[in-house]
Amino acid sequence: MSKRGRTLLIDNIGELSTQHLPDGDGQAVLGAGGSEAGVMRDAAVVLDGERIAWVGPSSSAPEADERFDSAGRAVLPGWVDSHSHLVFAGDRTAEFEARMAGEAYAAGGIGVTMGATRAASDDELRRLLAARVAEAVAGGTTYLETKTGYGLDVANELRSAALAAEFVDEVTYLGAHLVPAGADADEYTALVCGDMLAAVRPYVRWADVFCETGAFSEEQSRRVLLACREAGLGVRVHGNQLGPGPGVRLAVELGAASVDHVNFLDDADVEALAGSWAGWTGPASADSAAMAGTVATVLPACDLSTRAPLAPARRLIDAGVQIAIASNCNPGTSYTSSVGFCVTTAVLQMGLSVQEAVRAATFGGALALRRHVGNDVDGQRAVGSIAVGHRADLHMLNAPSATHLAYRPGMPLTHAVWRAGQRVV
Ligand SMILES: N=CN[C@@H](CCC(=O)O)C(=O)O
Ligand SMILES: [Zn+2]
């Protein structure tokens, strides 16, 4: 084994959920009940600096500089949280209480957080961001996306993007989150496509649009997504959250990497999403990122917190759609960064097997961010699965199997976390 960094052998792993399924997408196998593709028993992993250097049976593991005895615990890839909104100040407890008393969620609450965020100093936002990222890591998240979207003018969207880039792995431009009160919708859309986009562009890899009644129409959303794509950003969509609508079909039409929420889907939406995956031959093929379709990202904590019908994750998987599970951490609809809680809910309430849910929150998130492949390409390694050459992002549970995530809901099962080879929990 090459000695590029200090090596660490993690052995006696009772159950290793690699989520590495090179011969196909694996979802059908995982859903078949009992079969566990991508899972090894009595396994070991060797980390070499930031990368995974070896994966195999514990009994034949090579020696390393240091050793960590897992004592039979389960190990998964670190969570890949592909959808969050962490750049904000203030909270919306009163809105949440009103919702629990029967009021429906509406997009307008975003304006409340916009006001608090604009009023906060850079240092205050930095402190809040650092605390939120630390909470996510403590729960096993090792790769994190976050969005702008509570600035909603050029200066504050730029500030949000720049601050986010200091703290997270991927930043998404969400100037098209809400038309600020008093602004003309078409003029604001033009700003989002023009000066605002130019300002944030150096800090962001993605653009997103809230395509929903009360936010941005199909036509406005298309304009924003096309302008952002033209500027070299990958695109994604908040769609079909509050009711049936054009979000999913627009996302597929424009080759979005993901459409997120997907609570209200008709047959045509599911067919469009499935069709986007028709030419995909799985994670191992050379053109795996280029051929990937539109991931449907489900947000179980948001569904519970807004009392929305749960997104039809089971139906999507059965139709051949690749799904992700993410936290959607934000002050309005989902004030939690616990991906573990989302996985638990997906198993208990959405009909996913444990390995399907773990896969969606690891490999699925990576796929939604197009980081599921790559071996030091552009300085990036694959995340979301455990295989040689991938980034050494591991989540060890204080439990013998991932099943305990659902079997022991709400328990603090995170025992240790390595991010890019560094022990962070
Ligand atoms: N739906 C749009 N955006 C957020 C909610 C934002 C808010 O209410 O502050 C979401 O993903 O749920
Ligand atoms: Zn969101």
From TrEMBL:
Catalyzes the hydrolytic cleavage of the carbon-nitrogen bond in imidazolone-5-propanoate to yield N-formimidoyl-L-glutamate. It is the third step in the universal histidine degradation pathway. The keyword Heme does not apply. Binds 1 zinc or iron ion per subunit. GO terms for molecular function: imidazolonepropionase activity; iron ion binding; zinc ion binding. Residues 75-405 form the Amidohydrolase-related domain. It comes from Sinomonas puerhi. 4-imidazolone-5-propanoate binds at residues 92, 150, 177, 241, 333. Its EC number is 3.5.2.7. Its cofactor is Zn(2+); Fe(3+). It comes from the Bacteria. N-formimidoyl-L-glutamate binds at residues 150, 330, 332. Belongs to the metallo-dependent hydrolases superfamily. HutI family. Zn(2+) binds at residues 83, 85, 238, 328. It catalyses: 4-imidazolone-5-propanoate + H2O = N-formimidoyl-L-glutamate. This is Imidazolonepropionase. The keyword Ligase does not apply. InterPro entries: Amidohydro-rel, HutI, Metal-dep_hydrolase_composite, Metal_Hydrolase. Pathway: Amino-acid degradation; L-histidine degradation into L-glutamate; N-formimidoyl-L-glutamate from L-histidine: step 3/3. It is found in: Cytoplasm. Fe(3+) binds at residues 83, 85, 238, 328. Keywords: Cytoplasm, Histidine metabolism, Hydrolase, Iron, Metal-binding, Zinc. Pfam families: Amidohydro_1 (PF01979). GO terms for biological process: L-histidine catabolic process to glutamate and formamide.
